[in-house]
User: Fold these one by one.
Assistant:
Number 1:
Amino acid sequence: MNIKNKKLLNLVKSIFVKHKLNSYHADISAKALINAELVGAYGHGISRLKMYCDRIKKNLINPKPRIKIKKISRSISHIDADNSIGFVAADIAIKTAIEHAKKSGLGFVAVKNSSHYGLSGYYAEQAIKKNLITMIYTNAPPAVAPHGALKSLFGTNPICFGTPTGNKVPFILDTSISKINRGKLRFAERNFLKIPKDVALDKFGKPTNDPKRALQGVQLPIAGFRGSGLAWMVDILSGVLTGGNHSGRVKDPFEDFTGPQNIGHLFITFKTNLFVKDYNKRIKDNIKRVKQLPKVKGMKEIMYPGQNKYKRYKMNLKKEIKISKIIKKELEILNN
Ligand SMILES: NC(=O)c1ccc[n+]([C@@H]2O[C@H](COP(=O)([O-])OP(=O)(O)OC[C@H]3O[C@@H](n4cnc5c(N)ncnc54)[C@H](O)[C@@H]3O)[C@@H](O)[C@H]2O)c1
């Protein structure tokens, strides 16, 4: 079934309101989910709506959080999200980081007691629109085995770096440290799809292209010990530093209903002109030099990170959003 994105937005918003989020928080959360659909990150879109609602019903996500922002200096704030839905905590955090950077040049905002916030790049876009560079980190439930370990502990812990480019398409490197992100695995499982064979092992340590077996086993980090090291760095920055859970203690939102997730996030924003006056000119020159390189056979364009998602977003905006029968049924039940 296909549905207009505005209609789906209103439906998702009303479902969140039915689950006791206030209208403003429901709007923030619904917009983040629809954006994930529009950029093609289906594993982080409405396929997660039921999970958020289940966790709200079980009081593991607080629909009426009392979010506290502790200002530490002109640049630094620490947010206690009171187990709010992650979208709301992240929205407040990036806005606070932007405000700090506009005033002092740098924004450094840590968040604890949060939950899954979706796509880091979505928040990066907000900072870039204000002409700021940004770096964003969040940890996630165990999915990836640390290099040399037999058991998952790190999350797919995305690393996000974004900068204005001097043109309308931002540079946003927003990547999981696993070969496949967990949302894609869950999406494949729900839709009976296969996954590539080199991205995960089953619980016996054998490569598998079956997403169900991969979810029971371990996901592989990008680039071996290097990816494992990056995952660890993200766990330290977003978990150890912020007061959030870390070292494998973040609960899986789909499977573990024994307590809130207490995910940590870190939002860093800074002005582009801290050290040079002509950043715009320099970044344009940088991108131009990369793009002008001779290309390998079959490659039409050397793209910078974020370009593909921007194109997909613009294209999808004109189309209706496709939802599966399973999701349609879930939406009907949640809206009752
Ligand atoms: N909240 C969480 O717990 C959590 C955990 C993991 C991932 N995520 C999110 O999931 C999303 C998807 O992650 P992913 O690892 O699947 O991303 P991906 O593999 O789709 O893309 C990774 C990066 O590579 C860039 N890219 C892709 N194709 C390219 C090309 N041909 N040329 C140049 N650059 C290219 C993309 O723009 C992106 O910046 C991210 O937004 C991430 O924040 C969230």
Number 2:
Amino acid sequence: MTVYVLHFSKPYKHARHYIGYTPDASAARRVQEHISGSVKGNPLVKAAIDNGATVTLAHEFPGASREFERWLKDRRDVGSWCHCCGIKSKPLPDPKNIRDRYRERKAAEARRYKTEAA
Ligand SMILES: [Zn+2]
């Protein structure tokens, strides 16, 4: 499994990145699906390409879980560490370093949704 970050050379609306997860050992196959415009690609990536952006595989986190993908998305700070953006005000996130506080908050949210749905 791999979590990967795609960087768009030109923002699409406010989006400059796409964070994805694949069960594969590398992001190569998924990136190909995204950029080939195949139906398996993500609509946001397709829209960015249609809008004239070049899509670059900026980062791969081999062995990273779906939980890490969620954590990265919730941080909303890719622009602070993506090397394609060239800002790098924050260190690269570490899949082994998801905060316990984050895990506890997610577990609490899941319990709350369950209660509301019942
Ligand atoms: Zn970037």
